[in-house]
From TrEMBL:
Cellular component aspect of the GO annotation: core mediator complex; mediator complex
Protein name, UniProt field: Mediator of RNA polymerase II transcription subunit 14
Species for this entry: Teratosphaeria destructans
Comp. bias intervals (Polar residues): 58-68, 1056-1076
Region spans: Disordered: 1-95, 1028-1087
Quaternary data: Component of the Mediator complex.
Subcellular location: Nucleus
Keyword Cell inner membrane annotated: no
Chief site of localization: nucleus
Domain Mediator complex subunit MED14 N-terminal: from-to ranges: 101-310
Amino acid sequence: MPGRIMMEPGASGSVDLKKDKSHAQAESRGDPSVDSTSYGSRDTPASDHPQHKANGNGLPTTNGSMPLTNGDHAVSPSDVANMASPPPLDQSWRTTDVNKSMGKLMDRVAQRCYLDLQATLSEMSKISAPAGASAQANGVSPGAVQLDESEVSKSKKRKLLEFANDQRDRFTKTLVLADWTKNADEMARIIDINVWQRKQDLGSKAAAFELADIKHSLTHLKMPAPNIEGAMELLATGRADWVPDPGYIAPERLTSKQLLKTLRDMNVALATRLNLDEELPPDMSDFTIANGRATFQVPGEFEVDLTIADEDPSTPFYFIDIRFLFTPCSDLLPEIVRPRLEASVNIELANKGLKGCYDFLHNFVLTHKINVLRAQAGDMIRNGKWFDCIKVELLRRTLTVSYWNGVLGQKSWIVVAVVSGRQAKTPRRKLQPRLRVQWYCDGLAQDEQETADFQLVDLDLERCIMSVISKHSFRKLESAKAGIEALTPSPRALTAEILSAQSDGSRIPALELSLPGMRKPLNIRIEPVTGQYSISPVNATTLFWQTRLNHVQNVQVPQELASMAAKSMQVKVNDQAQSCGWSKFNAILDSVELPPGTYHRSHFKLKDWNSGWGLTATFGTGGEQWSICRVQHRPATAPNGPSVNAIVTLQEVIGHGAVARTLAETSESSLKRIERLAVAEIFHWTLASEFEMGHIPYKMAGRGAPADHGSPEIGPSAIIFTKFSRLVGIAPNAASKPWASEVVRLAFFGIDRKKKTDDGDAYVKLVLKLTLNQGKLPELRQMLSTSSDQDIRVNSTGGLALRFWSPFGAPLVEQIRIRLKNLEKLDRHLATLKQCGFTHQRASLNSIVIRYGAADEYTAALRFAEDGSLPVLLELMPDSNPHHRIGTLLERSLNNKAPSAFSSFVASLQLTLPLLQTIDRLEESHGGLKFFTLNARAPTVFIITYGMLRPACKFELIARSKWREGKSEVRWLLQEAKSQTQPIAEVLATALKELWKSGDSRWTALGNSIVAPADTIAAALEKLDEVVRKTESSSQPEQQQTDDAPAAHDPASGQAPASTKSNGGNRPAQPGQQPKKSQHNEVIELD
């Protein structure tokens, strides 16, 4: 058998066969290693057949000549040798990623085998024998040979065999591939040829496609060749020789009489049939017969002409024409529609009669109406007005038009659909379909009565949408109005009213908001096309809220509109406040409640106000409300952070309602009135708080807003009544009677901007009125009756008015007490002056100018602090006033806290005046020589030192009082100073003894001193000076030796030598005054 493998008997080993058949190829090539006797059949060797023999040059031979049908195919060897070599083949595929090497493939196979072996062994290890199974070695029981019945062992073997089988197949395939790799070059060349062949095939197909595309594109470049001459002949003559004649026989034309008779017969036949034989549908009962046709009219839908061709009632009607009875519609049907409509109507007439004709045309008209509305919707969108605002969807015979597509929230739409007409409560009978317009507002279906006004005869989709939009807008504005009316507080100052206007033939409503003081109310509309809110007048505030209402999801419209109205008022008031010079500041609220319904607030710092006070304006549904506020400046909580203003108290300004009504008219003047009301409220609040803390009864008068009197500085009158005894702190059971009646009236007159504190704050002006009791404060009455002081006035009946100023916002009760006590003190001061024989040049609560001396040539001006505190300033005039020597001591005694300080001061003036005048005369008598010095330890204690003597001599001059006959008498005691440490000269000592013992009517000699009254102390001093001078003349030679030496200061005396004399002792000169030069050579210096 050919192809059978034969083996020689007795041959050792196996035949060396190769899977790639390379042994056969080696044999054919004459490989000597291959035995030629091992292949083929010995009986019929292939080499014995002549057709298998080859010529010497390798060309095959044939058994005879073969016929050549397609030309001469004989190619000689020389031609083959001369043929051109084939083109180079594309071998780029060899470098691609898909071409892998055989070594890598074998590595992957070996790696895969190793991983699969591990996985198989892991799975086998997980298969465990059930509990109680007997142990077997390799699945065989010891001592017996039997089959393996263990399921565990079988499973493991099955796993191992499956692994071996899979790997065997994989390695077998790898072996086959490895054998084929020996012919890798031939296989690669075959692949090269295949790639080249595929490219040639794809190129030929692409060329064919391009040729076809070019041919198709060239059809537009062909020039048409119409038969112009034939067309002109046919159009001009109506016939043409080249047109074939069909050979039709034209019917004979009817005459007019024949035509009239035919039409009459047809009318009679139609009338007879319609009245007697036909059962007319209820909707086609309205018909007319004329001109051989019956015209059926269905209101609002169509008018159809029908006729018959025979008098037989069984024959059908035929359709002639139709006209639509709604607008807009065309008078003529399109040519493409009429034939189909006529055919369809005739079919219905033939099958179902007039009832079927009506049903068909009725549905046709309903569908046509839907299409007309759909076309109108498309026109609305194309015109641009409703672009991107409505969305149109047509599904079967249901037209859905959604509007306000850009509005957030639930959508709204209308549905125009053909419905069956059947209702839930009607009996089950066939009803005619109809058009129904359904409105869905915010996703909820509305009652059909809402769309009952929609015209189904005069179709206008835009008018229908505008009608629905108007109702929708009205609902939204009505809901906003109801929400505003439900806001707190009640009653509200914010008013809302819905207005209507005509726009595009539909009612477009508007919501009008107004607050007291608005120049123009806010008008809120809803744009009918877009559904967006539109607010006028247009400004930054309304634009902000308009954007918020249109672009914020789930916004609360009533609250936002109320907030917008309040913000509009706030902006207006802020602008007005800025023009008035008010400065706005930010602050937090510290346990302070704002008025109900407040949405916005502004805090203002007014000009000349204390930094602890401010004015707060709140804006909300309650309108514009003004309050005074206490402000605390708190340091920053964070490092390098800003400080914080905190509102700790808030008090409404009484009477702001009357001002709010005029805000829109006089902006600046209205704010000025509010400022005056606020200042008055601060006055009331501050004073009432102090009265309540001090348990002082009080009563407030009505706080209105009187006229401005043409001056913004004059505030409204604010009056408080209280009790005098409780105000000044007099006990009810006190023995002494108060010097004024119980009723005290305190009136407030606003801010006085002419006076400023050191911090730049203004003062407020107040007027206190009371009535003096009979016989009380007589000196004050007498002084005020002739005084020109405008701050204190008294009338003949004892009525006293006191005008004073207080820093803005400062406590008032203590100031009032101080001023009332100062009134009483001023009366005592005047009485003291009168008692001492002094007069006053002018007197007030702040100052007293005292005149004294023989001819009232000297003055002492006392200036008191406004709060009654110390120190009291003393100014002595003129420069020749002797009291300049002890001015500092006098001022110190005046500032003593003892009640009798003023009396002591006045007594010191009276007591020391003769003494100091004598000292001045003695100094002048010495010709300017520093013969002696006067040192004052107190207004009643003086040390006279004669420093020109050696040793120096000192004398004490002390004022002592003594009661005599019920009166206190003050006398001067003149004696040697106890601080005299060195004995005086013998001559002077002898002279002094004579002086101390010599009597005189002007003084009394006590043996070691002299006592003299105040008016005669001058004589005693002159006598002493005379004695010392005489002693000094006798010792002149000794003193001349020491003239050049400065006077030694006696440390034991404790006195400092005098240097200069100044106004008021050592007190510095007052601002604005030049230091006054002394006219004396010696001045007093205080210890």
